[in-house]
Design a protein that fits this description.
This protein is of the alpha/beta class. The chain has one domain: 3-Layer(aba) Sandwich (Rossmann fold), CATH 3.40.50.720. Helix content is about 35%, strand content about 15%. The protein has a 5-stranded parallel sheet with strand order 3-2-1-4-5, sandwiched between helices. Helix 1 links the parallel strand 1 and strand 2. Helix 1 packs parallel to helix 2. The longest helix has 22 residues. The two termini are about 30 Å apart.
């Protein structure tokens, strides 16, 4: 597998459709076996990157998908198109996972429209590179923690009453948590 070249976008969140080359979100050789048939997965940050790849893979396994994303509408629509091309339904829910009320509403909408919730994937995260810790503002620090830590907590809290025995919560993390990065001090600590 080839490495993606380093790319930088000033806008946050970044827009996957503007990346060149485009990241590969699906493996054409992978064939689903129905392991998630009749299940529903809610994936935060499912509009792009790892979240999009998970949404497509889960759809290939038969799961209906709810994608929670901030405001990357075109990326989210592309994910919906890719998921629905596999057969299952794909619900798009735009909002800020750092807002507890939004997380409650996203879970309510998922259960209301897709009938249940079996898998929660806490994948959304944000990072804002800075040259030194002195450049990390209080607002940036709070925003990073609100998305990366509070968002995971709020979404899990909202989902738990709907998850039956045998359901799953998956929390993704970054290698940056283990290796560190001098330009991502706040992100690495989440």
């Amino acid at each position: 597998m080839s490495q993606q070249p380093s790319q930088h976008q000033e806008r946050r969140p970044g827009i996957e459709s503007e990346m060149r080359p485009r990241p590969q979100a699906q493996d054409p050789a992978y064939r689903g076996t129905g392991k998630l048939r009749d299940k529903v997965a809610l994936i935060t940050g499912g509009d792009s990157g790892i979240g999009r790849a998970v949404a497509i893979a889960f759809a290939r396994e038969g799961a209906n998908i709810a994608v929670v994303y901030l405001n990357e509408h075109n990326d989210a629509e592309e994910t919906r198109r890719l998921v629905e091309s596999e057969g299952p339904a794909c619900l798009l829910i735009a909002g800020d996972i750092g807002d507890e009320a939004f997380c409650q509403e996203a879970v309510r909408q998922t259960v209301g429209e897709l009938g249940r919730l079996d898998v929660l994937v806490n994948n959304a995260g944000e990072q804002h590179p800075q040259e030194s810790i002195a450049q990390v503002s209080k607002e940036q620090l709070e925003r990073t923690f609100r998305t990366n830590i509070f968002g995971q907590f709020f979404m899990t809290k909202a989902a738990l009453p709907h998850l039956k025995e045998g359901s799953t919560i998956i929390n993704t993390t970054s290698v940056t948590a283990y290796k560190g990065n001098p330009q991502l001090i706040d992100y690495a600590s989440t």
